[in-house]
TrEMBL record:
Transmembrane segments: none
InterPro entries according to UniProt: NTF2-like_dom_sf, NTF2_dom, Nuclear_transport_factor_2_euk, ZNF598/HEL2, Znf_RING, Znf_RING/FYVE/PHD
Alphabetic keyword roster: Metal-binding, Zinc, Zinc-finger
Name by which UniProt lists this protein: Uncharacterized protein
PROSITE patterns attached to this UniProt entry: NTF2_DOMAIN, ZF_RING_2
Limits of the RING-type domain: 88-129
A single BP term in Gene Ontology: rescue of stalled ribosome
Domain NTF2: 1-57
GO MF annotations in UniProt: ribosome binding; ubiquitin protein ligase activity; zinc ion binding
A Pfam short name: RING_ZNF598
Length: 212
């Protein structure tokens, strides 16, 4: 059985929606498994499809519902925040790599930012909604995270690959200061859905048959 504690939604680009759900799964032995789930509803024709569905198990706790009388149960005035300063505010996963634009907000992981820019074509900051034509991806080190204060220092029309001390990904207009992270994000952007590919092939085949 699942219990939903919170469900928050935030508008994204082109009528897309980012959804964050928190709750717990209750097993037969009354162990409550806390979780967070984040996914993106991306518009497609007259419906939506779910993209980047991230389910994260947070921890277990023994349920006291059957063993503690209701009169002695205490309900906290404030529920604990599921994401900390070291967690991505979108997927609630631990921040290892961050991506940010000229606004300087470093609270979203590079994977979520790349997904939003690539799939939803949403180039806005998740916090302040400022549009960022160019972003910078670096390792998350808290107060010691590398800061780019002047994004105009980046070239306007850089080639794909190494550009000075950085690596540039043209599909998301992102500069990386780590080669391995650049390669991983570039490979992720090349992934495609087999179902969508088959549908596109069927559509292309129908068009070719219609031309004869």
């Amino acid at each position: 059985m699942a219990e939903i504690e919170t469900a928050d939604a935030q508008d994204s680009y082109e009528k897309g929606v980012i959804v964050l759900v928190t709750g717990c799964l209750i097993a037969k032995d009354n162990v409550r498994k806390k979780f967070t789930q984040t996914f993106i509803l991306a518009p497609q024709d007259n419906s939506y499809f779910i993209f980047s569905d991230v389910f994260r198990h947070i921890g277990d706790s023994k349920s006291q519902i059957n063993s503690v009388p209701m009169a002695s149960m205490k309900i906290p005035h404030h529920l604990p925040r599921m994401a900390t300063n070291d967690d991505c505010i979108v997927c609630a996963d631990t921040l290892k790599w961050v991506a940010y634009g000229p606004c300087g907000h470093k609270e979203v992981c590079s994977t979520c930012v790349i997904h939003l820019r690539l799939v939803c074509e949403d180039r806005r900051c998740c916090l302040c909604k400022c549009e960022s034509n160019t972003i910078f991806v670096t390792r998350a080190l808290g107060d010691y995270t590398k800061a780019i204060n002047d994004f105009t220092a980046f070239p306007d029309d850089p080639p794909e690959g190494q550009v000075g001390p950085y690596w540039y990904h043209g599909g998301t207009q992102a500069f990386f200061d780590d080669l391995d992270q650049y390669k991983m994000m570039k490979a992720m952007c090349m992934l495609s859905c087999a179902v969508c590919q088959k549908n596109e092939q069927r559509t292309a085949g129908s068009k070719r048959r219609g031309e004869f």
